[in-house]
Each structure stands twice: as C-alpha cells, then as structure tokens.
Amino acid sequence: MEKVIVYTHSDCLLKDNGPNHPERKERLGVVLEAIQGIEDIDIEIKSAPLAALENIALVHPQAHLSGVFSMIPTSGLVSVEQEPYADTFLCPSSKDAILRACGAGIAGAQSVMQGDSKRVFCAVRPPGHHAETTRVNGFCFVNNVAVTARYLQDTHQIKRVAIIDFDVHHGNGTQEIFYNDNSVLYGSIHEYPLFPGTGAETEIGLGNIFNAPISPGTNGVDFLKIFKSKVLANVDKFQPEVILLSAGFDAHRRDPLANINLESKDYFNITKEIVDIANRHCQGRIISFLEGGYDLAALAESVTEHLYGLQDSQPDQ
Ligand SMILES: [Zn+2]
C-alpha cells in the first residue's frame, strides 16, 4: 500500500468562470470532499505552493505569461480567447489559482524525488493540458504537467519523462510543447473528432507522440484495450524514469462535454495499468494532475477510484 500525497490549495477554488460554465469551482469542491471521505487509504493532504516564475519559464516564455497576467481584470471576467472558443476567462483571483495549480506539480516532483511518497495527486484547477507554449486555450493558462516534466529534467536530472493523458480531450498543448523533443513521451487516448481537433494517429512528433483517437460511444472494455495497445505498450518500451498523468475524468458516461461511456470503476483499472508500468520502470513514481471532468458526482466517484488505483490496492466494495 502506497501513501498518496494530495497537493491542493483554497486559491484554486477562487478561479471563477461565470455562471453556467462547466469548469467551475464546485468541481474541486466535490473532489476534495470525496478525498476527505476516504478512510482506508493513507492520504496526506498538503498545501500547494505558488510556482516560481522561472520554473514556468521552462515552458512558457516570461513575456507570454506577463502578457496573460496583465489581462487579469480588477472585477468581472475577461475572455482570453477569440471565437469560436471564447470560453476561457480570467477573473481577479486567477493569478494565484494558476500559480498554485502549477506549484502543486513542482512540489509533487520534489516529493517523489525526495522519496516522501511514490504517488502524488494534484487536486487543482485551472487545468493545463490545452495550454500551448504561447497560447492560452480550453480553460488552460499554464501547462502544469509540461512545466513539471521540464522541472524534473532541469532540476532533478531526469532524462525520460512519460506524460500519459486519459482526459477525453486531446492535450494539444502538451503535444505542441514536446512535439520535437524525444526525451518526453506524450501518449493520449481521447474522443475524436472532438475539441480541440488535434490528436490524429498520424501526429507522431519524433516518434515520441502516441495518439489513440477513439469513437463516440466507446465503452470501458474497448477503451482499456486501445489504451493498453496504443499508449501503454509504448510507454513500457520507453522506460520512463517518472510518469506524469493528465488525469481528466470527462470520458465518464455521465460527462456533459463528451460521448465516451466509462463507468467510475474503469478509472481504477486504467490507473492500475499505469501503476504496473511505474512499478516496473520508475520506482513507482507517478504525479497525477486533475484536468477535466464536468459531471460533479461522476467526477467525485472517478477521482476516488483513481486514488485507490494509485494507492495500489482494491477499493472496498
Ligand atoms: Zn477534457
């Protein structure tokens, strides 16, 4: 049984996207409530620090980040993207939420490298996997998982990082950032076609990008089969030293933004497969980041299953 460290911060609850927006603070609220309700897993909840700007600059140029922060309003909301995707907003408290979400990953990297725990879950928002080097996109401002990968390489001399993305949307940002860098493997399973439109199997980078597009209506059995053969088999060959997860839970059958039919318990099986690879190649080191997941009850259940998977034991039935 592995202890799971959860990094989170109340600042991440303050990020506001206005009424009727799917990426709302209640998402993190139900996730934290679910985590606090788990009694038979060894979980340590820790405060996510603010990310240092020089760490974010390993991925996003400082001028770009300053430009984004300069758009933060003193009241109300500002839309950062143009139509047809004008649904990514900055609010007065955005900066601290963005820096805490990224800081969770940095602190998580320090925790796994110091041996405090092999498993970290970053319960944060805003999410990150749509953020490209110099482009805010899809509710994402800073690519939390990408910054953590670069930080591990820059500060902890990690050579090979695998980023596995099982959010229902393709992580266009993460793919763009590492498209020409084969020290990082990016593997994604996602509904296709769907926002953001990228993620075809032909997008392979330097042979380090593995996309597994799946059709609307795919169930858990087929999802796991495709995930293992097209993503995890390649992660296994890559022999990563650390595994990072873009853990979105919007492939759940009850999610309003997509059309894949996973049940909550499928997230246990998905996670367990990843844990097996981590145990084989990287001393079990996994840092997982909350990305999407927009049905509150499904999200809470799915995160719970994910944590049982990370802890490497069966949930009580
Ligand atoms: Zn998503």
CA radius of gyration: 17 Å
The fold-level CATH name is: Arginase, Chain A
Share of β-strand residues: 15-25%
Portion in helices = 25-40%
Largest beta sheet, briefly? 8 strands, parallel
Give me the CATH architecture, please: 3-Layer(aba) Sandwich
Biggest sheet, spatial arrangement of strands = 2-1-5-10-9-6-7-8
Bound molecules: zinc ion
H/E order of the elements? EHEHHEEHEHEHEEHEHEH
Describe this structure in words.
It is a single chain. The protein is of the alpha/beta class and 317 residues long. 37% of the residues lie in helices and 15% in strands. An eight-stranded parallel beta sheet has the order 2-1-5-10-9-6-7-8, with helices on both faces. Strands 3-4 form a two-stranded antiparallel sheet. Strand 1, helix 1 and strand 2 form a beta-alpha-beta unit. The model has no long low-confidence stretch (mean pLDDT 96). The structure holds zinc ion.
